[in-house]
Automatic annotation (TrEMBL):
The keyword GTP-binding applies. It comes from Gossypium hirsutum (Upland cotton). Pathway: Pyrimidine metabolism; CTP biosynthesis via salvage pathway; CTP from cytidine: step 1/3; Pyrimidine metabolism; UMP biosynthesis via salvage pathway; UMP from uridine: step 1/1. The gene is LOC107926002. This is Uridine kinase. SUPFAM superfamilies: P-loop containing nucleoside triphosphate hydrolases (SSF52540), PRTase-like (SSF53271). Its EC number is 2.7.1.48. CDD domains: PRTases_typeI, UMPK. Pfam families: PRK, UPRTase.
Length: 451
């Protein structure tokens, strides 16, 4: 089965032939967005907002600025004579840009040059960019060049009044790019403004979406994000199933995922970072338990209106991977009872319950079901069915895991709409062996060192 991110028919107006015979089947290509606009219109700001709202997706940003050619010594002496806003070959290395985009589109990692606006040169180190489901290409002239434009599935033009842009450019270039006001104004009137009028503004006609007010336009950004999610087929999971809770993604969490998902990560690091992620998921899951209000007196004699933790809890781990989550649960809930379930069966084969040992009074407890990976959902369904047969109400079950595949979410949530799932990331799909993609491999083997 193809990953969900690639199954939704996006890129359907791009065929393999029309894009230079790329070796990737057309339904496996990433969604490419171009963001153009005049200098300081807010392109970078808009891109960052889109990226932060797409936090569960694999997104990369490529800047056209990275492909500025380094100035040589003669050019540097007369830098104020240089036109950085012209689409000609002398200014940008568009061939390199196209080749990097082509590699990313084929699913290969690329090294993107780093550009320094103060020295007007490419500098080391370059930036390693990994393939992603969404690639955003941003820059003043990305809609001008036919070949670059032709890469895009969605073309955006950020449109802001020129006065506002000039004011922002003066501020930015004097603060961040080592310029003085006179340089900025001279460059603006000699090169930036004429090139904007001749090349950039006319490229607006190629845009699918024009965003007035740039980064202030929350509605436009939200619509764009919803459209991308729809195209990725990831749109509705949290909306269709309100019982799914994905913990808020931060760079810390992305960093931990990067480590645990990396095939090169050592067992020691895998365990360390999995434990950190598990702890976050467990803490988040506990936040979904019912509570009662309580007022206490602080040492200052003041009244604090708080809550009391839910007391009747238990954990149930699905052997063997789920056992890796027990320590975090014990660390958060002193003396918690933990039951075990062993289920046999792989892939889409039927699941068999091999062993279970659950607290006798489980039906009167809230149950935290522990299993780090939700793949097809078959094991989870078996485990949840057992809990229900023991009299645990569906509403009293919180299923905690690190990664969930959309297939598993659909299967579990359709069958058990009243339980809660707490996860740290939703992945793209399952492969033909029912492994989660991109996934993290066989969790139990990596965690317990049996791989
Ligand atoms: N909506 C906004 N309100 C205020 N300042 C903004 C806004 N959007 C961008 N800026 C500022 O204007 C400058 C240019 O924005 P940037 O996103 O870098 O534009 P571009 O990438 O189009 O050149 C930056 O200093 C940025 O912080
Ligand atoms: N060495 C350079 C290279 C480029 N510029 C200016 O940068 C502008 C593009 O970046 P934005 O973030 O504003 O889109 C472009 O207008 C160039 O004039 C520069 O000043 N020095
Ligand atoms: Mg920018």
């Amino acid at each position: 089965m193809e990953p969900a991110a690639f199954r939704s028919g996006f890129n359907d107006h791009i065929s393999v032939e029309s894009n230079g015979g790329f070796d990737c089947p057309k339904n496996k290509q990433p969604f490419i967005i171009g963001v153009a606009g005049g200098t300081a219109s807010g392109k970078t700001t808009v891109c960052n907002q889109i990226i932060s709202q797409l936090h569960d997706q694999r997104v990369v940003l490529v800047n056209q600025d990275s492909f500025y050619r380094s100035l040589n010594d003669d050019q540097l002496v007369n830098v104020h004579e240089y036109n950085f806003d012209h689409p000609g070959k002398a200014c940008f290395n568009t061939e390199l840009l196209l080749s990097c985009m082509e590699k990313l589109r084929r699913g290969h990692p690329v090294n993107i040059p780093s550009y320094d606006f103060k020295s007007h040169k490419s500098i080391e180190p370059s930036r390693l960019v990994n393939p992603a489901d969404v690639i955003i290409l941003e820059g003043i002239l990305v809609l001008h060049d036919f070949h670059v434009r032709n890469l895009m599935n969605m073309k955006i033009f950020v449109d802001i009044d020129s006065d506002v842009r000039l004011a922002r450019r003066i501020q930015r270039d004097t603060v961040e790019r080592g310029r003085n006001i006179q340089n900025v104004l001279d460059q603006y009137s000699r090169f930036v403004k004429p090139s904007f009028e001749e090349f950039i503004l006319p490229s607006k006609k190629f845009a699918d979406i024009i965003i007035p007010r740039g980064g202030d336009n929350d509605v436009a950004i939200d619509l764009i994000v919803q459209h991308i999610l729809t195209k990725l087929g990831q749109h509705d999971l949290c909306k269709i199933y309100p019982n799914i809770n994905v913990i808020f993604s931060t760079f810390q969490i992305r960093g931990m995922h990067t480590l645990v998902r990396d095939v090169k990560t050592t067992k020691h690091d895998f365990v360390f970072y999995s434990d950190r992620l598990i702890r976050l998921v467990v803490e988040h899951g506990l936040g979904h338990l019912p509570f009662t209000e309580k007022q206490i007196i602080t040492p200052t004699g003041s009244v604090y209106s708080g809550v009391v933790f839910c007391k009747r809890l238990c954990g149930v781990s699905v052997i063997r991977s789920g056992e890796s989550m027990e320590n975090a649960l014990r660390a958060c809930c002193k003396g918690i009872k933990i039951g075990k379930i062993l289920i046999h069966g792989d892939g889409k084969n039927g699941r068999q319950l091999i062993y279970e040992k659950l607290p006798a009074d489980i039906s009167s407890r809230h149950v935290l079901l522990l299993d780090p990976v939700l793949a097809s959902g078959n094991s989870a369904i078996k485990a949840i069915s057992l809990l229900l047969s023991k009299g645990v109400p569906e509403t009293s079950i919180i299923f905690l895991n690190l990664i969930s595949a959309p297939e598993g979410i659909h299967a579990v949530c359709r069958k058990f709409p009243k339980l809660k799932i707490v996860t740290s990331e939703i992945d793209s799909s399952l492969d033909k062996n029912y492994g989660v993609i991109p996934g993290m491999g066989e969790f139990g083997d990596r965690y317990f060192g049996t791989d």
